[in-house]
Amino acid sequence: MPEPLDFLRTMLRIRRLEEAVVRLAEDPARPIRGHVHVYIGQEAAGTGACAALEPGDYVFTTHRNHGHVLARGGEPGRILAEILGRVDGYSQGRAGGFHVAAPHLGILHTSAIVGGSIPLAAGAAFAASRLGNSKVALVFFGDGAMEEGVFSETLNIAQLWRLPLVFFMENNSVSPLERNGRGSPTSEHSASALSDVPRAYGLTTEVVDGTDVDQVYATSRRAIAHARGKNGPVFIESRTSRWPGTYASSPSLAQTGETDVTWAWSPETAPQPARRWVEHSDPLLLYARRVLQTGRIDQDGLVRLDASVRAELSSAVDFALRSAEPSADSASEFILAPGLS
Questions:
Q1: Which of 120, 202, 258, 281 is deepest in the core (most CB within 10 A)?
Q2: What is the domain count for the chain?
Q3: Res. 174 pLDDT band, cuts 50 70 90
Q4: Helix (H) or strand (E) holding 51
Q5: 140 CB contacts (<8 Å, ≥6 apart)?
């Protein structure tokens, strides 16, 4: 199992990366052209699930992909360069922030289409099964993807063919009481409602508190081992509470501000719009409090760790901004059928 400080550092890196994305999106110079979706508030889910994978396994993800790519081993500078549409990005700036992919890390494709990566992950799992290797495919998607026809179709065929596939559904719209299914009777009912769907297809299904990185890691390890052992697919529902900065039409730091790690022990100093979320639902700060209580790091050590992560991400932003935009002369590169009109 990874060390707690490794988990903490990964979640900090994701948080600072996504805050940098929001700052760039809000910059009047508009270095990011277009909308952005960020992973703030879901860091524990991506961190724990990706840590449970083997290096050769596959990951498929969504429009909220930046955290997944970073947790899988991606370089923050190259992720940011891709978001900015620059040549040093993972797809030479041609994919943009909705489609960051890194095949050398097993992230074969990223789709902003709701549910778009689900059948692709099944295809990779089918290939692994036919080739007889031990690879597993894990696909991240949101709760909205369960309304798409391709979700049910893929669930059905994955179970029929016993594919080595883990469905990792990130439900980011639940209250703190509902997260772990141990709140009121109403929340217990809602905790099982979405997960009843894959159970109807006979899949092994688990609901996990997506703010608890240790719980996500342990659950993902079991699921991946189950799938790798040719026992069929597994469905995980990760339950988190949405970051207050995402309730506007675009993510914003205007009311919440950037995360201050001192909120881990002084949540009352957080801005009012984010205070309840900081205290009860922020996966980064919840884990920081736990690690502080174990004595593995003290308050000064946490501040120093954050400072090193901030320095790394500052360098990554500089790298991305210095990267050139693709030239017009390169427009025909990387297309499937050059010369066709």
A1: 281
A2: 1
A3: confident
A4: helix 43-51
A5: 46, 49, 59, 60, 61, 62, 64, 65, 68, 117, 168, 170
The pLDDT value recorded for residue 185 is: 35
Contacts of 21 (CB under 8 A, 6+ apart): 32, 36, 38, 66, 80, 83, 97
- Structural domain for 26, as ranges: 4-244+298-321
Alpha helices in 72-184 (DSSP H): 76-83, 118-131, 149-160
Exposure pattern of 160-188 as b/e (b: 16+ CB <10 Å)? ebebbbbbbbbbbebbbbbbbbebeeebe
Predicted confidence at residue 34, as pLDDT, reads: 84
CB atoms < 10 A from the CB of 150, how many?
17
Place of tokens 């003290």: 298
Give the number of C-alpha atoms closer than 13 A to the C-alpha of residue 331, restricted to the C-beta side. Answer: 3
pLDDT of 270 reads 97
